[in-house]
TrEMBL record:
The lineage of its organism: Eukaryota, Viridiplantae, Streptophyta, Embryophyta, Tracheophyta. It is found in: Plastid, Chloroplast. GO terms for cellular component: chloroplast; mitochondrion; small ribosomal subunit. GO terms for molecular function: structural constituent of ribosome. This is Small ribosomal subunit protein bS16c. It comes from Corydalis davidii. HAMAP family: Ribosomal_bS16. Keywords: Chloroplast, Plastid, Ribonucleoprotein, Ribosomal protein. InterPro entries: Ribosomal_bS16, Ribosomal_bS16_CS, Ribosomal_bS16_dom_sf. The keyword Chloroplast applies. GO terms for biological process: mitochondrial translation.
Length: 85
């Protein structure tokens, strides 16, 4: 199963995150299938490759709660994200 989740990057005390499509059995810094976005919580910057995210969602990928909340802030308008917790 594929999930859309955060992958930690950056230096100590200055984390930035990549939003990646990754197999659920992989660890957090494991090999990802594709990079679909970027999130910097300190500066509040977010970049999402919306067509790529929608492609993975159509294929059955599930976003984690945090990725769902990030994308829900007006970045994926018009598309409802289905999440099974």
């Amino acid at each position: 199963m594929v999930k859309l989740r955060l992958k930690r990057c950056g230096r100590k005390q200055r984390a930035v995150y990549r939003i990646v499509a990754i197999d659920v059995r992989s660890r957090r810094e494991g090999r990802d299938l594709a990079k679909v976005g970027f999130y910097d919580p300190k500066q509040g910057q977010t970049y999402l490759n919306v067509p790529f995210i929608l492609y993975f969602l159509e294929q059955g990928a599930q976003p984690t709660k945090i990725v769902h909340d990030i994308s829900k802030k007006g970045l994926c308008q018009g598309k409802e994200l289905r999440v099974n917790y």
